[in-house]
Write a structure and sequence with these properties.
Layout: E1 7-9, E2 34-36, H1 51-57, H2 63-76, H3 80-86, H4 91-102, H5 116-119, H6 124-130, E3 132-138, E4 141-146, H7 154-158, E5 165-170, H8 173-183, H9 190-200, E6 205-207, E7 210-212, H10 218-232, E8 237-242, E9 247-253, E10 256-263, H11 268-278, E11 290-298, E12 301-312, E13 315-324, H12 339-349, E14 354-359, H13 366-377, E15 384-388, E16 399-402, H14 411-419, E17 425-428, H15 434-445, E18 449-454
Parallel strand pairs: 4-5, 14-18, 15-16, 15-17, 17-18
Antiparallel strand pairs: 1-2, 3-4, 6-7, 8-9, 8-13, 9-10, 11-12, 12-13
């Protein structure tokens, strides 16, 4: 079926086409005040092949993969590009196919400097919701990077931007989302909440050992912004540390701690109390270390937060371990391995037996790498079993066991039970002791493929 383009006026604003070319009128070179966006109006591109056909022709997709992806799209209604990325097709190949299909220009976000004037024109909520980033504005023309030209709600949001024209360019989805989170930081608005806290006083009232919390209180909002921004910055841990004259907040990103916020020392106690309430910990006990957890939702993503507190000379310190269940959706090709390293790693993980250890310091991506590997190996022809602490992501078709100290389910005892379940592939979340190491090595030598991790700086120390 051949589908045609349709032009929709945009309330008098001049907006260039999504194809990277200006639409000309019959009288001359005057730009038509409209958006030409076929996908936004349930129409397709006349004479243009479908994106799946372009990918197949470019060698990025096999006919079998395309058929499977189309079947998956019929079942769950997700965008085809999202399904293809989750099945291992490189995101760059999909962006290139979109550019070919729509005649849009592609922009390399690594070479782009965003302008504050452009950022101010698009609210952070719109940028994150639609995955769009304003880049710069010159002579009334606003340049915006987008990832999905087929977003049916994009036009409505663009109509609210008060500029003469908008020029749309394509960018890879994940780098675009990462840059949006970098440019729109929730922590920029914390200063106003700190002032509000100083005016209103403490949000925690202790009365007969009961704590009453106002969800809209400044301290509660500060904590929400810290956790939300940490997730957007891909932090693995958040450190909330009382010092002598201030409360320091640091994010661990790619293994390194970075200070992101400095708060008045008076906010330390109520902020830790708020954490304890969420994690169902003893709010009265301030001398002994405690552990807890809670679940929250950030930008539509479910986040499991593990909380650990301990007393220091300046008050209680808290460390939050962020377990983003959507982060495990990444594939091996998204992890940034050099081609030669990827080839060697792929060969090792496809061996019928043996052991593959992923090593590195805290927050270096060991779990993300193991989950991406498991996703690649998961098929109906193998029995995959895991023992984890905790289970961060549920894999369909994989038998997963979670550590339970009260039930005497440890890595060692769980691994012993797994060996009696006729496994082909075993994932051990972490080798923590000699017994677990001994059982894992024996398993690898007796016909099983064992995947695991070690807290070690390099292969030699492993």
């Amino acid at each position: 079926m051949v589908r045609t383009r349709r032009v929709t006026a945009l309330q008098g604003y001049e907006v260039s086409t999504v194809f990277g070319k200006r639409n000309r009128s019959d009288e001359g070179d005057e730009t038509v005040p409209a958006i030409v966006q076929p996908a936004l109006h349930d129409v397709a591109l006349a004479g243009k092949p479908e994106i799946g056909e372009i990918l197949r022709r470019n060698g990025a997709l096999s006919p079998q993969q395309l058929t499977a992806a189309l079947d998956q799209q019929e079942r769950d209604g997700r965008p085809l590009g999202e399904i293809l990325v989750s099945s291992g097709v490189p995101a760059a190949a999909i962006t290139a196919a979109l550019a070919e299909q729509t005649d849009m220009d592609i922009i390399d976000l690594r070479t782009v400097e965003t302008e504050s004037a452009a950022l101010a024109l698009v609210p952070a909520g719109v940028a994150r919701r639609r995955n769009v980033l304003p880049l710069g504005i010159h002579d009334g023309v606003l340049d915006i990077a987008i990832a999905d030209p087929f977003d049916t709600k994009l036009l409505d949001d663009l109509a609210q931007i008060r500029v003469e024209r908008i020029n749309l360019v394509l960018a890879d989805r994940q780098p675009l989302a990462d840059l949006i989170n970098l440019r729109y930081s929730d922590l920029d608005s914390v200063g106003g909440l700190v002032d509000a806290y100083a005016d209103a006083g403490s949000f925690v009232e202790v009365q007969k050992r009961r704590i009453e919390v106002d969800e809209a209180a400044p301290v509660a909002q500060v904590l929400n912004k810290i956790v939300g921004q940490a997730l957007r910055d891909r932090a693995s841990d958040v450190h909330i540390e009382p010092l002598d004259v201030r409360l320091r907040v640091r994010f661990r990103i790619d293994g390194a701690l970075n200070e992101v916020l400095s708060l008045p020392p008076e906010m330390a106690a109520p902020l830790i109390s708020r954490l304890k309430i969420l994690a169902e910990m003893n709010i009265v006990e301030r001398r002994r270390p405690q552990d807890g957890q809670f679940t929250t939702n950030v930008d539509g993503r479910e986040l499991d937060v593990r909380v650990a507190t301990t007393a220091t000379i300046f008050g209680e310190k808290a460390v939050l371990r962020l377990l983003d269940k959507s982060r495990s959706m990444r594939t091996i090709t998204d992890l940034g391995m050099p081609q030669e390293a990827y080839k060697r790693y792929d060969e090792a993980t496809r061996a019928p037996y043996g052991m593959v250890l992923v090593t590195g310091p805290t927050g270096s991506g060991k779990t993300t790498t193991l989950y991406a590997t498991l996703r690649q190996l998961n098929s109906g022809e193998t029995n995959i079993m895991t023992i984890e602490d905790p289970v961060e992501y549920v894999f369909p078709g994989v038998n997963q066991i979670e550590i339970n100290a009260q039930a005497d389910v440890t890595f060692a005892t769980g691994l012993k039970s797994i060996l009696r379940q006729d496994p082909d592939i075993i994932l051990v979340g972490e080798v923590r002791d000699q017994e677990t190491a001994r059982i894992a090595i024996q398993s690898a030598l007796t016909g099983h493929l064992v995947l695991s991790s070690l807290h070690a700086i390099d292969c030699t120390s492993s």
